[in-house]
Amino acid sequence: MDRFEEMRNFVRVVDAGSITRAADSSHVAKSAISRRLSDLETRLKVQLINRTTRRMTLTDAGQRYYDESVRLLGELEEAEALVVSEEAALTGKIRLAGPTVFGTRHLGPAINEFLKIHTEIEFELEFNDRHIDLVEEGFDLAIRIAELKDSRLMARRLAPITGMVLASPDYWQTHGLPKKPADLEQHRGIHYAYVPTTWRYKTPRGKNESIRVPAYLLSNNGDYIASAARDGLGVIKQPNFICHEDVEAGRLIPVFEDHHWFDLNVWAVYPNTRHLPKRIRVLIDFLAERWGEDPVWQACCAGR
Predict the structure, then answer these.
(1) Which residues are registered as beta bridge partners of 190?
(2) DSSP states of 108-151
(3) Is the Cβ–Cβ distance between 268 and 143 less than 8 Å?
(4) Which one, of 299, 190, 304, lies nearest residue 249 by Cα?
(5) pLDDT in tens, 44-95
(6) Cβ partners under 8 Å of residue 300, min gap 6
């Protein structure tokens, strides 16, 4: 039997004054109460209660065990009540990690709105493009835009992301609009650093193809890459969560929108634990509802 349950059974007997009354009050057979008490004394190798046919008294050891049991059971109840209270009130801290550009553009504003609703929750946010080990580094949750490979993590899909190939109106006017994807091999490419300059894509008929766009400029920051394209420096392949406002405003013009340059998803990932705190569940639900299947950045791809 669980040790806390042994304590509860012992305290119940002492408080009731007899095994019979303890059995009646707990709706458990008298023989079961008596056996549990005997098992406890056997495990502790000490007599806790002096029993006679007329009365029951605690031994010195029994009194000490009773006092400590009452204290420990009280602390356990307080701990459980505190957890239940925090869950109900949605309090506590959330350590959350997310990618830099998506974090500042979309995740950060979402957290701001969440905090206006749930004012008792605290956040520790880290926006970083490095791979964070949630388990080793003690994070509660991460927002990721990537293939998921860590079997220790649970994941929930939150929203779609679409890749686009774009350049500024001035660039296209100067260098000419490509008539087919292969024409991009004659253009100036602005690429993510440390990422292959070969752009793989799928044609409208589902055929997998690739092109190699010359690397004119490299950067590890998506916002800078978009700004360089707006300034007419070259062609970029970007996720639409970065470039959708530029497309809507006409600052960047996409080409080959019927091709699939890449299709990704936003994921909420968290350690594979038995119990996910309510504040984490509520946050994930909030993000899924805020973004969903038709997030704001998908508007520029509505015709695809």
Answers:
(1) 217, 236
(2) HHHHHHHHHH-TTEEEEEEE-SSPP-HHHHT-SEEEE-S----T
(3) yes
(4) 299
(5) 898 888 877 677 888 888 899 888 888 888 888 777 766 766 666 688 899 9
(6) 164, 240, 243, 244, 247, 248, 254
